[in-house]
Each structure stands twice: as C-alpha cells, then as structure tokens.
Amino acid sequence: MADLTASFHDHTFQTPLMNASGVYCYTTEELDNLLASKAGTLVTKSATINYRAGNPEPRYRNLALGSINSMGLPNEGLAYYLDYVLKKQADPTVPTLFLSVAGISMAEDLDMLSTIDQSDFNGLTELNLSCPNVPGKPQVAYDFEATEKMLAAAFERFHKPLGVKLPPYFDLTQFDIVAQILNQYPLAYINTINSIGNGLYIDVDSETVAIKPKGGFGGLGGAYVLPTALANVHAFRQRLNPEIAIIGTGGIENGADVFAHLLAGADLVQVGTQLMKDGPDVFTRLAAELADIMNAKGYHKLADFKGKLKTL
Ligand code: RRO
Fold this sequence. Notes:
Blueprint: E1 6-8, E2 11-13, E3 17-19, H1 28-35, E4 60-63, E5 66-69, H2 78-89, E6 98-101, H3 106-118, E7 124-128, H4 144-157, E8 162-166, H5 172-182, E9 189-192, E10 196-200, E11 202-203, E12 208-209, E13 217-221, H6 226-239, E14 245-249, H7 255-264, E15 268-271, H8 273-278, H9 282-297
Parallel strand pairs: 3-15, 6-7, 7-8, 8-9, 9-14, 14-15
Antiparallel strand pairs: 1-2, 4-5, 5-13, 10-13, 11-12
The protein binds ligand RRO.
C-alpha cells in the first residue's frame, strides 16, 4: 500500500497535499476544516498588518478550465492568523503550519516578519512576493532588483524558516536570474506558482468580463496553468540549491496532476481552484487517486519518484 508521508526539512506530513493560500483559509472555521481533512498541513490567507476588505465583488469566478480572481488581498490581519497558528502549535496532534504574509509595501513586509520573528511561532513563514491583484502595486518578484533588496532586508531581521511565493516565469533566462538571486539566501523553500496574473476572461454571449475589479483582469488558476506550474517547479528544481525545498502549486485537478508536480520536483503540492470548487473533501479524492497511481506503478513512497522526471 502506498505511503503518502511527505518530508519537508525536519517536518513530516501525512500527505503532500495542502491548500493554496487564498483558498479556504480566511477564517478559523475554514482552517479547522482543512485540519480535519486529508490535507497534510495548511497555509493561512496572505495577511497584511491590518484587516482588509479587498476588491469589490464579484471578484472570483470558476471557469470551465479553471478560475479567475482579483480578490485584492482581503484578510483578517496578521494578528488573527498568528493567533490561530500559535494556538494550534500547542496541540501535538496538529502538524507544522504555514503562515503567509503579503504586505502592500516592503516596509509592511518587514514589519510583519519582525512581529513573527519575535513571536513564539515555530512553523514556516511564507512571504508572498507575487500578489497580482492590488491596483497600482506591481508584483515584487517581477522586479529582480526589488526582490533581491527584499530578501536581503528580510534575512537581516528574520531568523526562522522562510519561504517565498513566486509568480510564474516564462523565459529560461528569468529562471536563471531568479534562481541566482534565491540561491544567495538561506531560504527554506519556494512556492511556485501564484496565479498567472492579469488574464482576461470574456463571456461572448453577454459580451462582458467575468469579475468586477480592474475591468475584469485577474489571476488565472486551474487547468489553464498546470503546464506553466510544472515548468516552474522543474526549472527551479534544476537550478536551486538542494537545501531549498519546493512547493508546487497550480492546476491540480486529480491524482495524476499531483504525481506530475512531485515528479517535476515538488516536495509538497497546493490545491487552489479545485479546492474552491469541491471544498476540503477534495483532499480525500486526491490522496486516493495518488495512492492508486503509485500502487499501479509499484511505488511505495514519494521518494521513489519525486524529482525523477525523464526527458526524451
Ligand atoms: O488576494 C488576492 O487577490 C490574491 C493574492 Br494576495 C495572491 O497572491 N494571488 C491571487 O491570485 N490573488
């Protein structure tokens, strides 16, 4: 019988599955439901220092091939999520949790990292450098100079395990440049990819866009993004120091998609659009489908195939 146990640095999770930040992780009730599911762990909604209402609705739409969103960073504020993970880490039955932050400015990011550093949080912190949906705020990780400055300043004050959430890159030279920057820092992991920013879905019958903010432009998720996500996971696995783990996010609809992410080099995988569509029961199905594939192939554990993608 396939063993789905996933290792991530010195942490062990029952399955390699978790939610993608921004999906089903806004409230303590949603977070508790994730903990009760087959997800191996969870990540909280990217937080700002203070509560944010986010962009006007409708701001998320499921589409036949995925989803489009321009949520605009709605969240309860860092204290809410930090309080949740601190309470949970006192419970030995709860796995190590991920806490995500996404400041509107570098100063806000650094402020939040200092708060987390000075707290008792002993889980993994994720710095989201790739929110595509705050009007007037470009994604930090598409500005290589800003990314380098951010990481340098972050590691001056932050002494706990830190990962970064990256946007998709599309050119091999971008992978080279970004990996060269990331390899200079003691990152625990990268999470790739965030949604493909600023897509535009058009409904031809009604001749309208699908969401209200930004005239309809929004981040794409789901089947639209799977090959881009796999490319980013694999390109970074080929370039990053082996100590930097990878969370693969993007386009997972079934167990085969989970298998593909792991094969490309992901250590854990996150599910966004499909979790939005199905709720936390999706993890039961994904775990069963992944186990079926491993059993059929004669693989007993994730390490039997993780990162072992073959080329022609
Ligand atoms: O809240 C959002 O609009 C959002 C964020 Br912070 C993000 O990182 N990725 C995304 O697709 N939406």
